[in-house]
C-alpha cells in the first residue's frame, strides 16, 4: 500500500528506491565540461561564483552573451520516452532586461529537438513553454536581485502530456492534453540558452527527479544542497598513486572537491575484486541546522582504469551511521585506457534516501568504492551532494508500507 503525505509525519530509513537523476548546488566549485557532474559546458558565459548564493558556498552565473550559449547540460544515461520529469532551480535575475525572450531552462531530444523550456521575456515575465505547440503557462514578473524557487513537472506523451509550473511553491497553472515528446528527451540545460541576450542570471540548488522510484519522484519543493566529502581514512586497501597524492591517507587522493579533480596527478587504484576503500566523511556546513530534515545523499565520482580489455567494473559504497553498507550501481567506468577519466552518468551515481536521519547521523556516514573484477580501477575524486530542508519545511515523499 502506498501513502503520500504533504508533511513528513514518519519515516523508515532507506524505505524505498530514491529516483534522483541529478543533484547540484554547484558546491563542486567548478563547471568544466566532463570533470564533475556536467556533461557539456555551453559557451564561456558560465561562471561559478561565491556571491550571491542561495545556499552553500557557490552558485552559477550565466553572463550576457552575443553568440552561442551560456549553459550547463546534464544528459540522461539513455534517451527516455515515458514518465514524468520534475526539476527545481533557484533563479535570480541580475543586471539588465532581456532584449528577447531568454531561455533559462531547456529540455531537448537526442537529436536536439526542443521539448519544453522556461524563459524570461522582455518584460521579465517567467513562463513555462511547450515547444511542440508554443502553448505556455505565465508566471510572475521577476524582480531584480531576488531568488525564486522555480519548479516544473512534465509528463511525457504525444497525446496526453501535462506541464505544470510552480514558483516559490505556488502553482502558476497546468497544461493538459499536450504533445510533450519530440521523439524522446535526453538533454537538460540550465543557464542562458539563447544566442543573443542582454541580461544575466544566477542559478543554485538544481534538482532533477523522475517518477520511477518510490521517493523523490515528484516536486523537489525547496530542497537545498550541501557538500559532503571524504575527510579521513577508515579502512583502506587501495594504493595511493601520483605526486598530488603525497599525504599519508587515501582520502588525500580523492578529496579534490571543491575544485577541479587532479586526475592522474593523484588517485587511488586497485585490481583486486571487491577490495574496498572506506573513508570517513567530514562535517556538513554550519548553514545546515542540527534539526534539519535530511533528504537524500547523492554520491558522485570520477573513475578511470588502465585498459579496456576484459570486464572492468566498479561501484561506490555507502555505510550509514550504524555501519550498514549499501552498494551503488555497477558501472564500467574502469574500462578506459590509462589517463582517461569519466564522470558518473545519471544511471551510475549512487542515490541514498536519508529517511528520518539527523545531520549528526549523516556526518557519521562513510563513503567508499571497490572494483568488481580482477582488473584495475582508479578513483581520483569522490563526494556526495546532500539534499536538505529546514525542519519545518514541507516534504514531498511517497512512503511504501509493505
Summarize it:
This protein is mainly β. It has helices at residues 251-254, 359-363; strands at residues 2-5, 20-24, 40-42, 46-49, 59-62, 70-80, 84-93, 102-108, 114-120, 125-130, 136-141, 147-155, 161-167, 170-178, 185-192, 201-210, 224-228, 230-235, 239-241, 267-270, 277-281, 293-305, 314-319, 325-327, 341-343, 350-353, 366-371, 377-389, 397-400.
Question: How would you describe the overall organization of this protein?
Answer:
This protein is mainly β. The protein folds into two domains: 11-220, Jelly Rolls, CATH 2.60.120.200; 226-389, Sandwich (Jelly Rolls), CATH 2.60.120.260. Helix content is 2%, strand content 46%. The model is unreliable at 1-16 and 393-402 (pLDDT under 50).
Amino acid at each position: 500500500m502506498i501513502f503520500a503525505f504533504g508533511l513528513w509525519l514518519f519515516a523508515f530509513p532507506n524505505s524505498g528506491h530514491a529516483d534522483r537523476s541529478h543533484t547540484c548546488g554547484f558546491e563542486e566549485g567548478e563547471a568544466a565540461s566532463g570533470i564533475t557532474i556536467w556533461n557539456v559546458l555551453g559557451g564561456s558565459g558560465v561562471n561559478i561564483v561565491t556571491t550571491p548564493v542561495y545556499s552553500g558556498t557557490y552558485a552559477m552565473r550565466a553572463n550576457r552573451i552575443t553568440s552561442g550559449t551560456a549553459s550547463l547540460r546534464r544528459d540522461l544515461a539513455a534517451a527516455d520516452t515515458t514518465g514524468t520529469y520534475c526539476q527545481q532551480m533557484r533563479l535570480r535575475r541580475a543586471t539588465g532586461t532581456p532584449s528577447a525572450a531568454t531561455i533559462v531552462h531547456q529540455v531537448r531530444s537526442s537529436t536536439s529537438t526542443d521539448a519544453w523550456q522556461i524563459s524570461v521575456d522582455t518584460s521579465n515575465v517567467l513562463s513555462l513553454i511547450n515547444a511542440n505547440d508554443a502553448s505556455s503557462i505565465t508566471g510572475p514578473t521577476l524582480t531584480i536581485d531576488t531568488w525564486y524557487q522555480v519548479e516544473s513537472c512534465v509528463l511525457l506523451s504525444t497525446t496526453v502530456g501535462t506541464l505544470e509550473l510552480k514558483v516559490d511553491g505556488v502553482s502558476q497553472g497546468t497544461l493538459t492534453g499536450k504533445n510533450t515528446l519530440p521523439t524522446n528527451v535526453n538533454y537538460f540545460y540550465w543557464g542562458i540558452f539563447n544566442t543573443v541576450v542582454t541580461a544575466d542570471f544566477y542559478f543554485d540548488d538544481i534538482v532533477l527527479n523522475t517518477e520511477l522510484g518510490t521517493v523523490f519522484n515528484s516536486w523537489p519543493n525547496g530542497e537545498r544542497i550541501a557538500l559532503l566529502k571524504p575527510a579521513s581514512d577508515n579502512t583502506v586497501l587501495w594504493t595511493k598513486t601520483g605526486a598530488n597524492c603525497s599525504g599519508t591517507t587515501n582520502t588525500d587522493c580523492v578529496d579534490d572537491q571543491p575544485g577541479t579533480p587532479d586526475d592522474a596527478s593523484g588517485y587511488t587504484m586497485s585490481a583486486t575484486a571487491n577490495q574496498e576503500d572506506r573513508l570517513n566523511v567530514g562535517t556538513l556546513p554550519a548553514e545546515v541546522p542540527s534539526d534539519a530534515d535530511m533528504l537524500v545523499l547523492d554520491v558522485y565520482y570520477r573513475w578511470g582504469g588502465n585498459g579496456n580489455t576484459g570486464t572492468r567494473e566498479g561501484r561506490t559504497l555507502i555505510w550509514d551511521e550504524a555501519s550498514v553498507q549499501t552498494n551503488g550501481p555497477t558501472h564500467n567506468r574502469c574500462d578506459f585506457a590509462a589517463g582517461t577519466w569519466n564522470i558518473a552518468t545519471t544511471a551510475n551515481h549512487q542515490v541514498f534516501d536519508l529517511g528520518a536521519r539527523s545531520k549528526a547521523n549523516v556526518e557519521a556516514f562513510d563513503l567508499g568504492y571497490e572494483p568488481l573484477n580482477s582488473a584495475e580501477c582508479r578513483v581520483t575524486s569522490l563526494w556526495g551532494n546532500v539534499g536538505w530542508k529546514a525542519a519545518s519545511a514541507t516534504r514531498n515523499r511517497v512512503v511504501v508500507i509493505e
